[in-house]
Amino acid sequence: MAGPSAKELTEQAVRRIQAEVPALEPLKLVVGLELRGRGDVQLYRVELPGPKVAKDSAADARVRVTVARSHFNELATEGRVRQWREAIQSGHVKVTGPEPILELVANVVARHDERARTPKTRR
């Protein structure tokens, strides 16, 4: 019995990230996802908000994400924003695109992390 498809895993991963960082939900962006397996490359087009995921080369993508299929499966099923960030910083996930877009997403995530760390004041 096969597990969830790459399309289902992609939708699951996007929804988890959007749930964790709600400020990313309205972001309008097309992302090209490249999953590298053993001698195989699968290309997906991920349209946000949504997500709308289709098996496509995503010629109109502003941002490209490249990741090994095995690592993607783990991140998609269990990964939170922190694990995605660590995977990007370690080079397991490669993200390319216009610097302003990448900075915008990084700043939104950083602000979310800061708010999550700041203790709530009691009234």
Keyword list:
123 residues, Nonspecific Lipid-transfer Protein, Chain A, alpha+beta, globular, five-stranded mixed sheet
| CATH architectural name | 2-Layer Sandwich
> How much of the polypeptide forms β-strand, as a percent range?
15-25%
Instruction: From the 3D structure, determine the CATH topology.
Output: Nonspecific Lipid-transfer Protein, Chain A
What is the count of DSSP helices, taking H or I runs of 4+ residues?
A: 4
Order of the strands making up the biggest sheet: 3-2-1-4-5
Characterize the biggest β-sheet. 5 strands, mixed
What this model shows, in words?
This protein has one domain (6-117): SCP2 sterol-binding domain (Nonspecific Lipid-transfer Protein, Chain A, 2-Layer Sandwich), CATH 3.30.1050. The protein has 123 residues and is an alpha+beta fold. Helices cover 44% and strands 24% of the residues. Helix 1 (6-20) crosses helix 2. The model has no long low-confidence stretch (mean pLDDT 90). It has helices at 6-20, 69-78, 81-90, 99-117, and strands at 29-36, 41-48, 52-55, 63-68, 93-96.
